[in-house]
Amino acid sequence: MKASEGIAFRLGAGVCVGALSSAAVTVLLGLGWELLSTSGPGVIPLSAGLLAGVAVGAGSALVAWTSRALALGLAAGGAWVLLAGVNPHGAATGGDAVISSALTIAATVAVAWLTRYALRELDLSVARRDTAEIIALRLLRGLGFIVLTSGALFPFLFMFVSSLKPRAEMVADPTFLGIAPAVFADGLIPGLTRLITGYREVLVTFDFLRLIANSTMISVVTVVFTVALAVLGAYAVTRLEFPGRALLSRGILLIYMFPAIVLVIPLYSAFSWVNLRDTLHGLVIVYLAQTLPVALYMLRSYFQTLPKDLEEAGMVDGTTRLGVIWRITLPLSLPALASVALYVFMIAWNEFLFAFMFLDTPALFTLSRGMVALNHQEVPRQFLMAGAVIVSVPVLVIFFWFERYLIGGLTAGGVKG
After folding, report:
1. Which of 356, 344, 372 has its CA nearest to residue 277?
2. What is the model's pLDDT at position 9?
3. Is the pLDDT of residue 399 over 50?
4. What is the pLDDT of residue 183?
5. 391 CB neighbour count, 10 Å cutoff
6. What is the C-alpha to C-alpha distance for residues 100 and 106, in angstroms, rounded to an integer?
7. Which of 32, 149, 159, 292 is spaced 20 to 30 A from 416 at the CA atom?
8. What phi and psi values does residue 379 have, to the nearest 5 degrees?
9. What torsion do the CA atoms of 119, 121, 125, 127 make, to the nearest 10 degrees?
């Protein structure tokens, strides 16, 4: 086959894939516009999206996707095409223009990613049936990923946008997910001040700064004590010989046979009797009992994968048992320790049932307990959504930051080697 024919095949495949991906993404863009715009239904010109998809597809077919600069250049070019052509509302300023710009840029990036994903590592110099099938499956898989990701992010988008709305706008149209241009009628700074009114009221008026401090203190203390006790307990179960070791190893998760709602009444009575109810350290004890079994189970599974020879060599050199744990076992277990700490922190930060039952003094409330005070008819929904954002963002940031440790720690003890 001539070189020119191979280039023609690659170019044709890239153009077709780019056109298909851009058509699908443009339809999703139209659905997004229906949800976010204030101008009502709009007509999205498919030609502009197809032109952008063809450009991205042709570039990805002719040049290897090894250069990020190329990908960014194609995405920027496609964004310019879409931005110039996709303007269904016909307004050049205001909130709708911002929404249109954000949607079109997001759609172009999605087209570039979907086209690249469908064509990566494929020989497009000749027409083959299996290549077409692979491309079709990848397109369907990529579109499914985009739809599922958009569906998962939609509640967070609704929560965040609702937290920025004034009360009148929320009452007038609670389903509108954009920011009305009237917010910035008096200028940028007054408009931004109106947008953050909900956060200012929640943090100051409803004293969420104190609740953040309470939740942080409880979560950090719970993490420290749970990890410390879990390390010692898991090491004892996996390395030491003592009566009842097998029974203890099998019964670690026994507490999880009982739902929390079954335990809350006996604990409430017991903690009231010993004056631990309505105290933060009493809540820490409850969280410790709730998280320690799973932490023990996770670390025990991980410690079973560590070679005993290193620890025995350390003790031969004169290191004590605690020295072996500190100098050998813990450094080798950092992924598992990080995943356990993350799991415990998320449980302590988000827990509601025991905080609701045990805490009565507003100054001692945690964030989840304080959210109940916002769920009142006299409190604007804007404040409730702002509180929900304040509760959700820290744990989301921590989770995504340490996600690799969480996955590694959960799977490390799966196979003993």
Report:
1. 356
2. 66
3. yes
4. 67
5. 21
6. 10
7. 292
8. -95, 125
9. -60
Look-up of token digits 């960014």: 72
Q: Which two tokens stand for residue 289?
A: 């009992």
Residue 253, φ and ψ in degrees, nearest 5: -95, 15
Residue at token pair 């604007």: 380
How distant, in Å, are the alpha carbons of 34, 35, 46, 203, 303 from that of 22? 18, 20, 9, 43, 50
pTM over 0.70? The answer is yes
Tokens of 203: 């943090």
Q: Which residue has the tokens 């077919």?
A: 61
For residue 154, what pLDDT is reported?
79
Each domain of the chain, given as residue ranges in start order, spans 3-171, 202-412
Confidence check: pLDDT of 274 > 60 = yes
Q: What is the CATH number of domain 202-412?
A: 1.10.3720.10
**Residue 216 confidence (pLDDT):** 92
Per-residue model confidence as pLDDT tens digits over 30-88? 666 666 555 555 555 555 556 666 666 666 655 554 444 455 555 555 555 555 544 44
Residue among 35, 19, 41, 56 at smallest CA distance from 102: 35
Q: How many residues does the chain have?
A: 417
Q: How far is 143 from 16, CA to CA, in rounded Å?
A: 16
Amino acid at 180: A
| Contact yes or no for 223/333 (Cβ under 8 A) | no
pLDDT at position 413 over 50 = no
